[in-house]
Design a protein that fits this description.
The protein is α+β, with helices and mostly antiparallel strands. It is built from 9 helices and 18 strands. The strands form 2 sheets. Strands 1, 2, 3, 4, 5, 6, 7, 8 and 18 form a 9-stranded mixed beta sheet that branches. Strands 9, 10, 11, 12, 13, 14, 15, 16 and 17 form a 9-stranded mixed beta sheet that branches.
Length: 354
């Protein structure tokens, strides 16, 4: 780690209080003692890298993030392994994706050593907040916002703030099969847009459809692109047809998931056929009806690998297989979780020890 962080004195949360907050906490509502802040300006570049107390940010009301949406973020996790160590999973892949999002949103690139160094520094300071409970982890949220105080929309912001915060987390979903809604009225992204960038506006535009899905008894929205499956609201989608694992290709409108890439590698190494090709709603429904499609699952950092059991739409509902988690989904989930927590060997160099 080449970047040096100044460290502010922070009184740690007492152990008993920390455990109380962590027990049964809803996803993303409890935070650790520290956060990282680093500033960028056109004159100085990146500077003032600091480990400080978690707390509110002070921003001018005219900061460009509030008015023109220059903002990006990432999602990743730190895990407690079987021997008590704390590790990150593929942090340099997240750094690469963060840089790609920054480029698309006309923001400065955060160098990989600064990005990963910020994660290492924060997790090392708050390692007691990394849960030891099976299936739990410390969720990490790096983000960057435009801070230049101006309402003039003539060029990208000339100042930015890079922040990393952390939140102990249990399972995003219960682990059982979820029910999804096929959204045909609204779209998440379009060719040439920002669908491949992890920016806040992509998510804000999905909330109305998510509300509609919940009212119909669904957990998540499946976004479509002209009749073809794009992705779910928080994750990528996979289809199991016999011994083949299929996922929609990266076409510029969906996010290049780190978990997605990991699943493709693991599935191939476990002997499954792997394909990235378009999947239409009609093909999905027909393959489920005739039994060729035996499993569907989603993949993402927050939700891990989650089976999809039922699909609802304006055109009617249908069930995947017998509606229970299938053997391929279960095997891939166990393999990935085993890698992340040290219960299985890591031949890929994905695990990054703190």
């Amino acid at each position: 780690m080449s970047t040096r962080f100044s460290v502010e004195e922070v009184e740690p949360t007492p152990a008993a209080e920390r455990e109380r907050r962590m027990t049964g906490a809803p996803f993303g509502e409890v935070f650790t003692d520290h956060m990282i802040t680093t500033r960028w300006s056109a004159e100085e570049g990146w500077h003032d890298a600091t480990l400080c107390a978690y707390g509110p940010l002070v921003l001018d009301p005219s900061a460009q993030v509030f008015h023109y949406g220059q903002e990006i973020f990432e999602g990743m996790k730190a895990y407690r392994t079987a021997d008590g160590s704390v590790v990150l999973f593929r942090p340099y892949a997240n750094a690469e994706r963060f840089a790609a999002s920054a480029y698309r949103m006309a923001m400065p690139e955060v160098p990989a050593d600064l990005f990963v160094g910020a994660l290492e520094t924060l997790v090392a300071a708050d390692r007691d907040w990394v849960p030891a409970t099976d299936g739990h982890s410390l969720y990490l949220r790096p983000l960057m916002i435009a801070t230049q105080p101006t309402l003039g929309f003539y060029q990208p912001s000339q100042s930015f703030l890079f922040v990393v915060i952390a939140s102990p987390a249990g399972a995003y979903f219960s682990g059982g099969p979820v029910t999804v809604w096929l959204e045909t009225e609204y779209t998440r992204a379009a060719p040439g847009g920002t669908g491949a960038a992890k920016c806040g506006g992509n998510y804000a535009g999905t909330l109305l459809a998510q509300q509609k899905a919940v009212k119909r008894g669904c957990d998540q929205v499946v976004w479509l692109d002209r009749g073809f499956v794009d992705e779910m609201g928080t994750s990528n989608l996979f289809f199991v047809l016999g011994d083949e694992v299929v996922t929609p290709p990266l076409n510029g409108t969906l996010l290049a998931g780190i978990t997605r890439d990991s699943v493709l590698t693991l599935a191939a190494d476990l002997g499954y056929g792997v394909a990235e090709r378009p999947v239409s709603v009609e093909d999905w429904r027909a393959a489920a009806a005739d039994g060729k499609l035996t499993e569907v699952f989603s993949s993402g950092t927050s939700s891990m690998i989650t089976p999809v059991g039922r699909v609802r739409s304006e055109g009617g509902d249908f069930v995947i297989g017998d509606g229970t988690p299938g053997p391929v989904t279960t095997r891939l989930r166990n393999e990935l979780s085993g890698l992340q927590t040290g219960r299985r060997p890591d031949p890929y160099g994905w695990v990054h020890k703190i």
